[in-house]
Design goal:
alpha+beta; Gyrase A, domain 2; Elongation Factor Tu (Ef-tu), domain 3; 2 domains; 15 strands; globular
Length: 262
């Protein structure tokens, strides 16, 4: 059975015009010049120091690109893109269509495209569809696959590699320059990645956002991000995930998806 949910937490921004693809290509972590009609890619807009500002899905549509972004960050994205526009021949505007996602067994509904982050995660679509599930169910599905979402990364806090963008097809390291590229490429090149987001399991409701994860009762191992009953994402030090981990005195278990830690 295929489940479909409308994602009211997401909104769209349309970037159109003769320079649309080149304009975005020079800003985002993803290759935009090669984005085909109807194709979907995952990427981000970073701050100049290389921290994550906006996670994005990019749809190739007509003479431009439609960006799928967190609804509460759409105005900020439009403002940021407008600041970079300068003399580029582009138009940037909100798009009122809704975002849908689908997952489960069987083929997706017409108009849906495979989620580019992880095989088997599901599909996304912009065409109107009849929901058969709600957004919390989709969030639970993402967490079950160990995939972080927008609620797990406040703007300008994390590096994209810490949020696993390099493993979720969110960074094209061969595309050339993008904002924040120097820091991102250096982290990847040196292989000195100390922190990553990992899913954690526990009993009961999720700990508060930012709650400290402790190793053996007294060594800081990271902090909890967004979650649901029984499962959450946490930004953890990779050298401190083996041993007794607790949050607010509660034991937690780190899940290690095969796609993440091989």
């Amino acid at each position: 059975m295929t489940l479909i949910a409308r994602l009211d937490s997401r909104a769209l921004v349309r970037v159109a015009g003769p320079d649309a693809r080149l304009f975005l290509h020079n800003l985002l972590t993803q290759d935009v010049e090669g984005l085909g009609e109807g194709e979907l890619r995952f990427g981000a807009l970073l701050s100049p120091p290389g921290r994550l500002l906006f996670d994005l899905f990019l749809w190739g549509e007509g003479d431009g690109v439609t960006l799928d972004v967190a609804a509460d960050r759409r105005d900020g994205l439009i403002q940021r893109l407008s600041m970079y526009r300068l003399r580029a021949k582009v138009e940037i505007a909100a798009d009122d269509r809704a975002v849908f996602t689908a997952w489960g067994e069987g083929p997706p509904a017409p108009g849906f495209v495979a989620d580019p982050r992880l095989p088997g995660l599901g599909w996304r679509g912009l065409s109107a569809a009849d929901p058969t599930a709600d957004e919390p169910a989709w969030r639970a599905h993402e967490l079950a696959h160990g995939v972080p979402g927008t609620p797990d990364s406040p703007p300008d806090k994390d590096y994209p590699i810490e949020a696993n963008f390099d493993l979720l097809n969110g960074i094209d390291f061969a595309k050339g320059c993008f904002i924040g590229q120097e820091t991102t490429s250096r982290m990847k090149r040196r292989g000195a990645i100390k922190n990553r987001m990992l899913p954690i399991r526990f009993d009961g409701p999720p700990p508060a956002f930012g709650a400290e994860v402790l190793l053996d009762g007294d060594r800081r191992a990271g902090e909890v991000r967004g979650g649901i009953d029984g499962r959450a994402m946490a930004l953890l030090r990779l050298d401190r995930i083996d041993g007794l981990l607790t949050v607010d005195g509660r034991p937690i278990a780190v899940e290690r998806p095969g796609w993440l830690l091989g």
